[in-house]
Structures are given as C-alpha cells and as structure tokens.
Fold:
Amino acid sequence: MPDNDTSGLIDTLKAQIAKRKGLAKPTQFLVEFSLPAGVADPRDMQDLSIMCQSASLPTRAIDVTDYAGAQRHSFAIPNGYSYDEVTCKFLLGNDYFPKNIFDRWIDRSIDSKSYRLLYRNEYSSTITIYQLDGSGDIIYGVRLNHAFPTKIGDLELDGSTINTVHMLSVTFKYYDYSIVDLAKQGL
Structure:
C-alpha cells in the first residue's frame, strides 16, 4: 500500500509559492484612467482611480475558422483575436463624481443632437490596470488601447435598503490591449 503522506507535496507547493514571491491577491490592484480632452480635469484622475472598487484583467480569445482544404474532415485554424468587455465598479459619493464623468464621456462617442459618430481619438482613451503585490508594488499591467464606455449601469433607488452605498458599474470596449513593459516604465 502506498504511503499517503502528503507533507512532501505540501512542502513542494510552499516552496513554489515562496519562489514566486507569494500568491497574487485580487484585492491588490490599481486602475489608471486617461480620459479624452474635456471629459474631466486631469487632476481628478487619481480620485477616479481611488473610487474604482473592482475591475478585471481583459480576456483574449483566438477566433477560428473551419478549414477543409483537401482533407476528409475540416479542422479549426486561427484567424484573429476577439476581446471581451471590461467592467469596473465605482463607489459614488454624494457629488456623483464618477457618474458625471462617465455620463460626459459616453456623450463624447456620439453627438447627442446630430447622432453623428465622432472620430475615435475624440472619444477613446487608455485605461491601464495593474496587479499589485502585498507591498503595493506593480507586478503586472495591461493597457486597454482606444477604450471607451459602452454602458453605464443603473443605480437602483430603494427606500427599503439601509446602510448600503451606490456602486456604479461601467462597461468598456477597447480596440486591443497590450502588456505593460514594467522595465521600460521604470516600475
């Protein structure tokens, strides 16, 4: 009968975690916004980052096409990438600071009077999402290129809820993303 002692496996796992400088925690992150001109005062960007309570790192999937060629059966071949949306959630103060910013930003995408689409550089910007370690140092970063909000979530008003606060959900689309080169950034 084999030895069921798993202490060797546990020690190996502990060693791997220590070698990798510990485990990454989802609570340790920073989101930096670079908004289009006229949406907000650049000095407010740090406040917007602080109010961001949740975000996700983007996902990328390989799109495929079935290819048969001279084969008896078809098989999948890659033909590009697709990117999922990224949603961030923000705490709202009584000045509705994030809500006002994202309302102005979403209005930048399409002229509300003429319904004319603006140029991409007029309504898109970059959003950078960083994973931090336990010391607050950046260990990984992703830059969403040509990002813009596509949905501002509803804020339900309910007289029966007490001791709760508003959280504003904002969904972003983006052209693509790039991994932040931390060495070049001096991080």
